[in-house]
Amino acid sequence: MSDLVRFGIAVDADLLERFDERIGEKGYANRSEAIRDLIRADLLERSDDPQAPATGTLTLVYDHHVRELTDKLTDMQHDLGHHVISTLHVHLDHDHCLEVVVLRGPAGVIEQAAQRIVATKGVIHGRLTLTGVLAPDHAHDPAHHHEHGPHTHTHAHGRSSSSGRRSR
Ligand code: NI
Questions:
Q1: Distance CA 101, CA 128 (A)
Q2: How far is the centre of ligand 1, averaged over its atoms, from the C-alpha of 33 (Å)?
Q3: Which of 29-33, 83-87, 154-158 has the lowest mean pLDDT?
Q4: Which of 4, 82, 84, 94 has its CA 20 to 30 A from that of 27?
Q5: Tell me: the pLDDT tens digits for 93-127?
Q6: Any idea of the CA torsion for 73, 120, 61, 71, to the nearest 10 degrees?
Q7: Residue 22 and residue 83 in one domain
Q8: CA angle, corner 81, sides to 78 and 82, nearest 5?
Q9: What Rg value do the Cα atoms of the chain yield, rounded?
């Protein structure tokens, strides 16, 4: 068994009060136990293979009044280039923005990028959800529909809508 280490955490009184309520509801005996579980859960979220193709959604809530934060977040996404598929921005209220960033690429790249973004000062909440289902270069590739060659299309009669493509 490894040694126990004690460390201090500085946290908002209000935030801590809510956390205590929450862990009370969950039945934790103390904060240490609850925080250990949070740490374990976080470590488990890493993917096994950093090279595996992954698609992920990164959900962020941030305070857009924090100096240069909006620019910084935009810059980080530009640096990721084609790994950023799409971004949805919602102005939550006067102070806060919600952003959902859809990322695609090797799991390791996606995870590191998400961590950098979430760790940026002013980002209040951030969570990456990875899905490993889509292989980026094969799924939903429009060229896939034509791989049988042009002759398959000659069987289509009448309207062009009946040729080749199926609806889902
Ligand atoms: Ni906004």
A1: 9
A2: 36
A3: 154-158
A4: 4
A5: 999 999 999 999 999 999 999 999 999 999 999 99
A6: -20
A7: no
A8: 145
A9: 23
- 81 belongs to a structural domain: yes
Protein residues near ligand 1, an ion, with CB under 5 A: 91, 97
SS3 (DSSP) at 133: coil
Residue 98 Cα to chain centre, angstroms: 13
Q: Give me the number of domains the chain comprises.
A: 2
For tokens 């509801």, what's the residue? Answer: 25
CATH number for the domain that contains residue 62? 3.30.70.1150
> How far does residue 67's CA lie from ligand 1's centre (Å)?
14
Give 23-80 pLDDT, tens digit per residue. Answer: 999 999 999 999 998 888 777 666 778 888 888 999 999 998 998 999 999 999 999 9
Residue 144: inside a domain: no
Is there a domain that residue 74 lies in? yes
Alpha carbon distance 88, 131 (integer Å): 18
pTM of model > 0.90: no
